[in-house]
Every structure is written in structure tokens, then in C-alpha cells.
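README, section 4: Worked example with a bound small molecule

Sections 1 through 3 covered apo chains. Here we extend the same pipeline to holo records, where the ligand is supplied as SMILES alongside the sequence. The molecule in this example is flavin-adenine dinucleotide. Nothing else about the input changes; the structure line simply encodes the ligand pose together with the chain.
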Amino acid sequence: MSLPSQDLNDRLSFTGLDSQLDELTLEFQQNLHRLAVEVLRPIGTELDRMTPEAVIAEGSPYWDVWTEFKKLGASFSLLYSLESLQAARLMSVMLEELTWGDAGLAISLSVSGTPWLLAHHFDNQFLLNNIPEDSIGCWGITEPDHGSDMVDFNGVAMSPGSSQSRPNCIATIKGNEVVINGQKSAWVSNGTVAQYSALFCSCDRGNGLEKVALVVPLDAKGVTRGKPLEKMGQRALPQGEIYFDNVSISTDWLIAPVEQYQQVARAQLTEANGGMGMMFAGLARAAFEEALNYTHERKQGGVPIIGHPGVRSRLLHMFRKVEAARALARRNAEYNMTAPQPELLGSISSKITSTQAAFEVASDALQLFGGNGMTLEYPIEKMLRDARSSMIEDGCNDVLAIKGGSELAQGKLHS
Ligand SMILES: Cc1cc2nc3c(=O)[nH]c(=O)nc-3n(C[C@H](O)[C@H](O)[C@H](O)COP(=O)(O)OP(=O)(O)OC[C@H]3O[C@@H](n4cnc5c(N)ncnc54)[C@H](O)[C@@H]3O)c2cc1C
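The generated complex, written as C-alpha cells:
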């Protein structure tokens, strides 16, 4: 056995404890890391300090991110043309690297594929023919009066005896026409810039309220947008309401029949939470790397603070959380890409693990930066804000844990 190299960077670099990244994945990772360092990190920092209106204005650097990302040639159809395990690996490497660069921009780029991906999952040829793969998409599910209610698509997190208030968005289906009225909340990621929305809302077919999932082209007559949302974290991510005033489209735009709503909602939450797991392992890693480097530079007591055992021990706990989050995220991605049925339980577990790790590691990093961590000179305070948002995004972790627990309640394992 050879002795370990003295230089930690030679041993781990940004692949961490990956033992067997093949050549294609490594090359892809290096290109993505370059994009993260040269484009996403600096532009994300710049956008973080701009107003939400300026972020999406013509000429904003936000649009350069799209241009540069497209140059990589990464697409879902390319991904799905690969062998499943390799696709899972590439996907997790991609989402981790993008979020290493900037969480808000990574969400903007990744949520964009939602309408196309749902069309692909449900093998909906009409949608696949009508949604350009490189268009900007979004997922409109949250409503002003329905946040956790909507994520809890099968009602397992609700208190017994509770009932839901009136929906804020209803799609009325008559014959082959869908007429949509109402609104989605200001939290819709890409809501202010998207061209297509996967819309999950209530539906009226004349037999009481049901739920439906469809795609709406956002240039349809009667669609308007709200004011870009001002918020604490992920400020580079454009968010805002989408309003529907008698928006009429054909039932061809339904992702699946109304009767399959629960399956669509389950598939989407599994995909979205799995993605969050891969992404926020990247933010945890970014905060850890910043902290490790800083502790080699900052001197106290006459030595770099890495010389103090308490600092080393804190860093070890940060490192193990990063690696645990990455490992679960990749394991879940590999399972979901290869198993006959993707597993919501795994995706929820990965989402909670990574977002919790990102928050804890960013908070520990801020501690190691001391007062400097609180200032805009260093990236840590932004990472902490971005990580905090992720614990609410795509279903708050409290409700997701109840949902995951309810999956476990469905049966015992056989020995
Ligand atoms: C950065 C970010 C991006 C987002 N992107 C999107 C997007 O792309 N599309 C979209 O539609 N939405 C999006 N959302 C909205 C997100 O899905 C909701 O914020 C989330 O589902 C929680 O809903 P809420 O904010 O209305 O909180 P509420 O549902 O009002 O819940 C508030 C708190 O009450 C508690 N709580 C509520 N219900 C229960 C329960 N049944 N059991 C236990 N505790 C409960 C929880 O602690 C919860 O945090 C995003 C949110 C954020 C922060």
C-alpha cells in the first residue's frame, strides 16, 4: 500500500471520496466545476446584491448563466441516452457542481426541466413534441393558501379531522377544453421568467373538486405574472406568482389523466427531492471547502487556526456530513434511475439529509470564519441564507419527514 500524499488536494480534490469516477464523468465534472468557479459563483454573488427586478431585467448577468450553461451541451435527452447508472452519476455530479457555484442559479437551471421531464416520465408524446427541451420551465404547485397542503398530495401529514380551505387555482375540464382560473404563489421558482409551467392544481369535472397535473404554455392568453419576489436566500433565483384568467388550452396538455394525479405528484416529488439531495450536498461541500482553506490562512495565537484541535475536530464533523449527504444523494439517484419504481422514501431522506447538512456545515463554516463570516467580503453568510431556504423549498423538512414516516408505516420488512 502506498503512503498517502502529503497534499490533501492531490488525494481528494473535488471528487471527495469517489473511488471510481469514469473518464466521461470526470471530464464532465471538470467542465462543470469550471462553470461553477468562473460563471455561477461570481454571477450568483452579484445577483444576490441586486433587486429581484434587476435580476431578471434585460442585460442582467442572470441571462449569461443560461448562455454559458447551454454551451456545455448538457440535456435530459442526452442523459437518458446513457446507461442508467452512468446517467445517475452524471446527474448527481452536475447538480452538485452547479450548487457548489450558486444554489439559486442551480435551482433555476434544474427546475427548468420539470415540464419536459414529467412529459418524459409519463411518455406523453404530445407534450414532448410541444415543449422545446431548452425552454425555461417551472413547477407551479404552491398557492397562497396551500403550501404544505399541496406537497402532502395523499393527505398523510394532515391532522385527523382537518379539512382544506378553498383552492386558489382551479382548472375546469369540459370535453377537450381546460379553462384555468386563479393563481399560484410567489414561491414558484422561475415563475417570472418561465415559458412553460407544470401546473399542479384543483380540477373541476362537474363531480366535486379533484386534482390535476398539466403543462401550461405561459404565452397563452390570460396568463400574467406577479412582481419578482424579494427574499432572504437564493436571491439569484427568480420567483413570483403566475395568474390565470380564463386561460383556455386543450386537454392534450394534461400530463396524465386526472385519475393518475397521485402518481404524477409522487413522481414529481420523488424527482424534485432527489434533485435537492444532490444539489445541497454541493452547497455543504462548498461551505466546507471555504472553511478548510480559511483555517489554513487565518492566524490566532500565532498559528493558523487549523493548528487548534477544536478547529480540526469541527472540520472533521463538517467533512463527514458532506460525504454522508453526497453518498446518500448518489445512492438514491442510482436507485431511482435503475429500479422499476423510483422511491419517494429515498428522495425525501436524501433531501432532508443534504439540506440539513448544508445548513449545519454553512453555520459551522461561519463560526470558523468568526466575525469575517458575517460580512459580505466572504461567501459564507450567503451560503447560510441559501441553505436555510432549502429546508423549506420543495416541501418543508417537517412535513416531508411525516410523509417519509408514513411510507415506512405501510409495511414491515421481511427477513
Ligand atoms: C426557495 C424556495 C423555492 C420554492 N420553489 C417552489 C416552486 O418552484 N414551486 C412551488 O410551487 N413552490 C415553491 N416553493 C414553495 C414551497 O414548496 C413551500 O414554501 C413549502 O411547501 C411550504 O409551504 P408554506 O411556505 O406555505 O408553509 P406552510 O404550509 O404554511 O407551513 C408553515 C410551517 O408549518 C408547519 N406545518 C405545516 N403543515 C404541517 C403539517 N401537516 N404537519 C406538520 N407541520 C406542518 C411546518 O413547520 C411549516 O414549515 C419554494 C419555496 C422556497 C423557500
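What to look for in the output: The chain is about 50% helix and 15% strand. The domain at 263-408 is CATH 1.20.140.10 (Butyryl-CoA Dehydrogenase, subunit A; domain 3).

Section 5 describes how to batch many such records.
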